[in-house]
Write a structure and sequence with these properties.
21 strands, 2 domains, 533 residues, Dipeptide-binding Protein, domain 1
Length: 533
């Protein structure tokens, strides 16, 4: 029988009835994936789509590894800190850019300084504020020469911080802490960095081979990458496809090797014979109040609005993608101490979970304090036009109107207009989702500290500030988590934000793709350890 099958296969091959993929013939390994929006290759590179692409072409001193731990891979072969965690010293391994030029310590001095002194545009300069004098550089009270990052020699980078930063190796996995070649930036012009393949230089496992804007980017293995021999995949093709149904159809047709999808596509994925998986992507979906707006300035009214929401029903009946009801702001999966997560240590901090009787009581008290009736309350929820965001906002609208007899409007805008209104605080509540840029609770809580550059709730609390800063300065890893948990509890007692759920995503992979890492910290999808059969 085996001989007959072999003869039939051989005949089919000769007749061209079976085509062997090129990678099976010559060992060349290529995968194709898709992202919903065009990435950027600027020095700061903020955004979810950027998380995947920047991770391919840029490497920091440390790197996210498998199973939530830091990887021994990264541009630093070793590092150490002083006794109070305010000075971190990193020793570079022998690494090179795609053109063979060496990675040097000055790359980090240049790139971080350029983001703070206005040389290049950045979205969130406060992501760098742990570094000594970083805030002063942005505000013009310090010069870039006074910044707490310097290079004693080409292979040593030293960071001095404003306060003890026990989580610094996790923090600097974020792209804003990566280096970039000063010589290349000066050659192409600061404003041109990343606009075209020739205006970008890679020190990561891949380089940009070709780029058709808003359509496709082809990444090829970087032969000068220090760990190239352990990178299994030779080519990664990234398609830019905004429409989820198109991405799912391409996956089902065998044209994509990985796809994320919502619950409405679950039956199609299952029918295609693929295993639908979920992963916690380190995000919390929540409503953020603008406390300067009359409609939501009363704390008891905000507390009532939180108590009116049945998060279990919201997740099971509306979201339906494996997400879980939020019992705090910092999501499940983020690090706490060496063995436990933040949520495992702190426990629930949501002060006003679902309780309709309590909601009615608080609402009546809030109305009395304001001297108004229910008919005088009109609330607008600002949201983007993403399907989940608009659907969940509409469900909340219905609950609040039916529970309290108030007017609730949902303003649904396309993403650019939504971001503009959000940045200008033109909302009563805004439907938000925040993901983990680094593996620490400060990534979620720092925005509500009084000196933060961007405070999405216009929230200022001395009690929150005291607890938050106590945690920030605490070098006892477990004790600092307790302090940060107390700060989180104060934020939620004031109902400045209303947590809804910890998000999860459905995804599926082709049968041939193995080793893809999905995690709760950027990059959410990582092909560093991947291979194909």
């Amino acid at each position: 029988m085996k001989r007959i099958v072999s003869l039939l296969l051989a005949t089919a091959l000769l007749l061209g009835l079976i085509v062997i993929p090129a990678q099976a013939e010559d060992g060349y390994k290529s995968i194709t994936v898709a992202i919903p929006s065009a990435p950027s290759f600027t020095i700061d590179a903020i955004g979810d789509s950027n998380g995947l692409t920047i991770n391919l072409v840029r490497e920091g001193l440390t790197r996210q590894g498998q199973g939530g731990a830091l990887s021994p891979d990264g541009l630093a072969e070793s590092y150490e800190h002083n006794e109070d965690y305010t000075r971190w010293t990193f020793h570079l391994r022998d690494a090179h850019y795609q053109d063979g030029t060496p990675v040097i310590a000055d790359d980090f001095v240049f790139a971080i300084g350029a983001q703070l002194d206005g040389t290049v545009e950045v979205s969130y300069p406060d992501f760098l504020y742990e570094i000594k004098n970083a805030r002063g550089v942005v505000r013009g009270t310090a010069t870039v020469d006074e910044l707490g990052v310097y290079a004693p020699d080409d292979r040593t980078v030293v960071f001095e911080t404003e306060y003890p930063v026990t989580y610094f190796p996790q923090l600097i996995t974020h792209p804003m802490h990566f280096g970039y070649s000063r010589a290349h930036a000066e050659k192409v012009g600061y404003a041109n960095i990343g606009l075209e393949p020739e205006y970008f230089i890679s020190n990561g496992p891949y380089y940009i081979d070709s780029w058709i804007h808003d359509d496709k980017i082809v990444f090829k293995k970087n032969p000068y990458y220090w760990n190239a021999e352990n990178i299994a995949i030779d080519e990664i093709v990234v398609l830019i496809i905004p429409d989820e149904s198109t991405r799912v159809n391409l996956f089902l047709n065998g044209e994509l090797d990985l796809v994320d999808f919502d619950a409405s596509r679950l039956s199609a994925i299952n029918a295609g014979g693929f295993e639908a998986r979920t992963f916690n992507n380190g995000r919390t979906t929540y409503l953020s109040a603008n406390l300067d707006r009359p409609a939501v300035r009363n704390r008891k009214i905000r507390q009532a609005l939180s108590s009116a929401l049945d998060r279990d029903l919201l997740v099971a009946g509306v979201v339906k993608n494996g997400s879980t009801p939020a019992d705090g702001f910092v999501p499940v999966g983020l690090a706490g101490d060496d063995t436990r997560t933040f949520r495992e240590i702190v426990g629930p901090t949501l002060k006003y979970p679902y309780d309709e009787a309590k909601a009615q009581e608080l609402f009546a008290e809030g109305l009395a304090e304001e001297g108004i009736g229910a008919s005088d309350v009109s609330i607008t929820i600002l949201t983007s036009n993403a399907t989940e965001n608009a659907t969940v906002s509409a469900a909340i609208q219905q609950v609040w109107e039916e529970t309290f007899g108030i007017t609730v409007n949902v303003e649904v805008l396309e993403s650019a207009s939504f971001r503009t209104k959000r940045s200008n605080y033109e909302y009563d509540f805004v439907f938000n989702s925040w993901g983990a840029d680094w593996n620490d609770a400060t990534n979620f809580l720092s925005g509500y500290e009084q000196t933060a550059d961007h405070n999405p709730a216009q929230y200022y609390s001395e009690a929150f500030n005291e607890a938050y800063l106590r945690g920030v300065y605490n070098t006892d890893v477990a004790a600092r988590v307790i302090d940060l948990g107390q700060a989180e509890a104060i934020l939620l007692e004031d109902a400045a934000i209303i947590p809804l759920y910890y998000t999860s995503l459905y995804y599926a992979t082709s049968a041939r793709l193995t080793g893809t890492e999905r995690r709760a910290v950027i990059p959410y999808e990582d092909f560093y350890f991947a291979d194909v059969k």
